[in-house]
Design goal:
The complex is a heterodimer of chains A (about 160) and B (about 120). By secondary structure, chain A is of the alpha+beta class. Helix content of chain A is about 60%, strand content about 10%. Classes of the chains: A alpha+beta (about 160), B mainly alpha (about 120). β1 of chain A pairs parallel with β1 (about 100-105) of chain B, so a sheet runs across the interface.
Chain lengths: ~160, ~120
Amino acid sequence: MRWLSLAALLFAFWLALSGHYTAMLVTAGIVSTAVCVFAAVRMRALDPEGHPIELLPRTVTYYPWLVREIASSAWGVTKIILHPALPISPCMTVVEASQKTAAGLATYANSITLTPGTITAGVDGNKFTVHALVRDGAIDLESGGMDRRVTAFEGKT
Amino acid sequence: MTLVVEIASWSLILLGSFFTLVGALGLVRMPDVYTRMHAVSVIDTLGIGMTFLGLAVQAGFSLVTLKLLFLMALVFFTWPVVTHALAQACLHAGVQPQLAEDRREFGRHATDVQGEGRPSSN
């Protein structure tokens, strides 16, 4: 079933990028989609890690929250950069991730890095080494608010 | 109508340019490689995001807007991977971050000790 959703998405992507809907080009799109899906199946890349389509419904709540979070911390970093005294207090810390799946862990690590002011610098199992621009950013992550959000986003798997 | 669209899109593009400039300024002001990466993240998020949004408003509802959204998604998913790879490569190469505080030792236990992010002892 997973291959069907991948095929549908790839074909929609082709149509969106092409913009020309002649029989020749649409056929080429169908053929390319088939080849890509076949390659993904052959490479055994078509699993919950390679194509985590079941996360799609929950992106509706998670990503808007993440975008708001990113915007507010980007504004925070902007104020630090423009501050004459450059009030930074760089910290390294280790946070524990409570996600079970590879897609969930990757989402958490990516979310930390996407949020300005924190970067995931190392991953060891479910322990992330994080570099934070200010001490508060590190403490915020250690308290695990984002971790719980990502685990909820991951769902029961 | 077109005037409103023009003002909205140019405000977004100019705001995006402002954040890109701020990121570039941060790149110069920050003391070491890790803190510089934080400065650049302002460009990748608010800078690119607002510029692209402004361009999307210019393009209206069309395939161009959809393609801009694809580009934003591409940046959104690849940028953290690149940053992570760079930070990890720096750590492996032995570039020591200038730290105000190293919480790596007790940060590890912070979540199960108190949930406050602070160790109960010491």
